[in-house]
Design brief:
binds nicotinamide-adenine-dinucleotide; alpha/beta; Rossmann fold; oxidoreductase
């Protein structure tokens, strides 16, 4: 059954620019009750909040400055939303960076993976039907590099594979049947956002030629297509499902293919 966003309270992390900013706009078209935008970028976040609140004249958007990689900061933002906005129905863990350079990869791991786990677990516990919640949905943003060959960004890929595995595991029917919290994983292909300015931030700066050459093989999609895919994944996705949004094509549910790959390895593990 198609899920509706009507009157839902939604959190979007990394909402001040790129895909996240467009997701916020798309959510307003779906008549959500409120969107809490979490981002480190205060200037861009506040500007978008003010723009959207004056455009729609309904104060449905609240920007909260938050570094998602800082656990205390993240949980404080959740508390503000709980206390001042209301029950959280949907969380879109979208914040992420691409920076495999030796000085920054730990930050990348913390933002791209650790914060997704912390945010998901907090929301999952709050929404869990056997813990006093009424269910909900968490969409975790991964990348096609988690499913395809991406040798040039090994650390970024590792974080995105982590997001994929975490989401399919926590979203498994084993947990969903008790929690009522859908966990969905959406893998974006190359998308035209500020993140792509960082493709030179590699674990090996000597490899830069390889990645720029490699990138020429791919067509990047628009943020509009990526945001549309978020909405479609929300409406159609079963818990534990895996989706791809790439090359401006409609969002694709690739759960069967993903499950088949797992089955192949299961046949080795359990034989
Ligand atoms: N752009 C692509 O080609 C592409 C491809 C696959 C997956 N993705 C994923 O999509 C998501 C969105 O990326 P984007 O392309 O829109 O990038 P972007 O750089 O345009 O936006 C990322 C947003 O996250 C925010 N952010 C960064 N660190 C943060 C932190 N510690 N706490 C809170 N906010 C933080 C930034 O300020 C920014 O507003 C990321 O998870 C990214 O890995 C992007």
């Amino acid at each position: 059954m198609e899920q509706s966003l009507n009157e839902k309270i939604v959190i979007v992390t990394g909402a001040a620019s790129g895909i996240g900013a467009f997701v916020v706009k798309s959510l307003l078209h779906e008549n959500v009750k409120h969107v809490a935008m979490l981002d480190v970028s205060e200037e861009a976040g506040t500007a978008l909040q003010d723009e959207l609140n004056s455009k729609y004249n309904n104060n449905k958007v609240t920007f909260i400055k938050c570094d998602v990689a800082d656990k205390e900061n993240l949980l404080k933002a959740y508390k503000v939303i709980n206390d001042e906005i209301g029950y959280i129905d949907v969380v879109i863990n979208n914040a992420g960076i691409l920076d495999d350079s030796p000085d920054s990869y730990m930050t990348e791991i913390n933002i791209n993976l650790a914060s997704v786990i912390t945010s998901s677990l907090y929301a999952w516990n709050k929404m869990h039907k056997e813990k006093g919640g009424k269910g909900g949905t968490i969409i975790n943003v991964s990348s096609v590099v988690a499913l395809s060959n991406a040798a040039n960004v090994p650390i970024y890929s590792a974080t995105k594979i982590g997001v994929l595995k975490f989401s399919t595991s926590l979203g498994n029917k084993l947990h969903y049947s008790r929690s009522g919290v859908r966990i969905l994983c959406l893998c974006f292909g190359l998308t035209n956002t500020p993140l792509l300015r960082n493709v030179h931030k590699l674990f090996d700066t000597d490899a830069i030629g390889l990645i720029t050459e490699d990138l020429q093989n791919y067509k990047s999609q628009s943020v509009e297509s990526a945001a549309k895919a978020v909405i479609e994944t929300y409406k159609q996705g079963d818990s534990g499902s895996v989706w791809i949004s790439t090359s401006d094509k409609p969002a694709m549910d690739v759960t069967n293919a993903y499950d088949k790959s797992i089955e192949i390895f299961d046949s080795y593990v359990y034989s």
